[in-house]
Amino acid sequence: MATVEARGVSKSYGGRQVLASLDLDMGEAELICLLGPSGCGKTTLLRIIGGFIMPDTGSVVVGGRDVTALPPAARRMGMVFQAYSLFPNMTALDNVRFGPRVAGQARDEQIKRATELLDLVGLAQHRDKYPHQMSGGQQQRVALARALAVRPDVLLLDEPLSALDAKVRLQLREEIRRIQRDTAVTTVLVTHDQEEALSISDRVAVMNGGRLLQVDAPARIYRDPADSFVARFIGAAAVMPGIAGEGRVRVGALDLPARAAGTFPRGSGVELFLRPEHVRVALMNGHIPPDTVAAEVMEATFLGSLTRLRLKFLDAGPDISAVWADLASEDAEAFRPGVRVLASWHEASPRVLSAG
Fold this sequence. Notes:
This protein is an alpha+beta fold. The protein has 9 helices and 20 strands. It has helices at residues 42-50, 92-96, 98-102, 107-120, 136-148, 166-183, 194-200, 218-223, 228-233, and strands at residues 4-13, 16-26, 31-35, 57-62, 65-66, 77-80, 154-158, 186-191, 203-208, 211-216, 238-244, 248-251, 254-257, 269-274, 280-283, 293-302, 306-313, 323-328, 340-344, 351-354. The protein is elongated and about 80 Å long. The model has no long low-confidence stretch (mean pLDDT 92).
């Protein structure tokens, strides 16, 4: 186990800044996901930690030791790539024992270690198969076992599940989390899949434009986003620009309840952030009670146990493009496109963000 620190790390290519004086601390045995859109710098940061790229400025410290100038082989790190990168002429067993063999371990110890790891990833019965004889998910498990075979202080995973189909991806991400907990290895995983990041991380580091916008526990990232980018990027949300009042936000012609608006100066520009699970809907019956908004169902999307409604607030003006509401699918039949509804939420539900 080891701590990992990236201190003041910057990187540019051809005048384009990819990372901007970034700081990130990781604890022992922690699994942290670097999450963000394509081009945000997450893979560059991972490769700098691994020693595959040198930063322009800053340092990488592992277990209290500055490893910035060390090559990858001297950093005691295991790496799993998106494309598996198995040796095609080696069996699963030989792929996994490759690292210990290069390190000079005795053959019996190599085979013992490789066998234990193949059992850990559920592939003991496939030890004599070559990569072309295995599925993508099995190949990625072998790649994971191979990375762990050298007993790394840190495990680096670069979009390891993106090439797999949805069902295998779900199964393997659960396996990665189980194996990471069993081995207690400090792990950094790069992904653009927010569901993947939220489901297996101890903490998520949300990146955009080469900067860290928020580093926090998954539940905190989801419930309490630091800014409007995080709010929009993590999960479905309506983010509406408005003016703060006393426990309310004026959005266009609407005066919407939001207790958190009271923490902002009255009249200041804010953004109201509303999740689908915050919004309750009822069929319109002619009367609009206080703190209830008239809306029209624009779309209903079946998601299994839930149905997600896309709503348009009536008479709201152009600042609200869409608001979503989730309800049990068994109750959703009456809420078809074109139906007028009443939308409401508890005043404590919305998050209010500073505009800009």
